[in-house]
Design a protein that fits this description.
mainly alpha, about 250 residues, about 80% helix, 13 helices
């Protein structure tokens, strides 16, 4: 009990972390966007900005599991298009942090996700719209920027990337593999910035994250199993629904 009291200020923090860990495992192994539900829960339990330092090491561990499992399933042309502006998005987030209050970070995250949802609904309404957007010079860079920004300020780029990958109409396993590789790269790139610029990662946050490892593994197994069970059309519908739910969860915090 003393160990838990040293790690967690309250039982709410512990149970929020356990739920978050399971959802992260499920999300990283295929149920894209489901872990965004945990973002507001962790923000309530640990604080909006400090929670990012707790979640990031957990995400990095889950990313590694996902890449090992889906290592042969990825569309690298999409990853290459997204990465440069995602890195720019990191530094935009750092700049915004210099004059935006921590409590406003959740609002910024939700606005970015809401923009992505509007684009998703627009492309779903007509055949060929997503193909036309994918051929424009600004579409992938825009989502790369939004992804880098939202992942830096709140580890909440899942729905943003879901919108982009949905517009590519990739097969289910390629969708999951592309998502896994993209997030592993950007999450590991974020570690020095979170640790040395924002000072969000320390021994205490790493210890809290390590407590969640068994639950991440449980969630990973559940995620792999569910992806195998879901048909292609059903999987796409699930991702759309979870993106909407994730955005509503963020807005409900204000």
């Amino acid at each position: 009990m003393q160990y838990f009291s040293e790690l967690f200020a309250s039982s709410q923090q512990m149970w929020s972390l356990i739920l978050c860990a399971v959802l992260i495992g499920m999300s990283k192994t295929g149920l894209q966007g489901i872990n965004t539900i945990s973002i507001p829960l962790m923000a309530i339990a640990f604080g909006a900005k400090p929670s990012t330092g707790v979640i990031l090491p957990m995400l990095c561990f889950a990313d590694l599991i996902a890449v090992i499992y889906y290592r042969r399933n990825a569309s690298w042309k999409h990853i290459v298009k997204l990465l440069p502006m995602a890195i720019v998005g990191f530094f935009v987030a750092i700049f915004v942090d210099s004059f935006v209050d921590t409590s406003d970070f959740k609002i910024l995250i939700a606005i970015c996700i809401f923009i992505g949802l509007l684009v998703m609904f627009w492309t779903e309404r007509g055949a060929g719209k997503s193909e036309k957007l994918l051929r424009t010079w600004w579409y992938a860079p825009l989502f790369g920027m939004l992804g880098g920004f939202t992942t830096m300020i709140g580890n909440a780029a899942g729905p943003v990337m879901a919108v982009y990958l949905l517009s590519t109409h990739l097969p289910k396993l390629i969708f999951v593999g592309t998502n896994a590789w993209f997030f592993m790269i950007i999450n590991y790139l974020k570690i020095p910035l979170q640790a040395f610029v924002w000072d969000n990662i320390n021994v205490h946050s790493l210890s809290i994250g390590a407590f969640g490892i068994p639950f991440i593994l449980i969630g990973s197994v559940i995620g792999v199993w569910l992806v195998k069970k879901l048909p292609e059309k059903g999987y796409r519908g699930f991702i759309i629904v979870m993106t909407i739910v994730s955005t509503l969860a963020m807005f409900m915090e204000f």
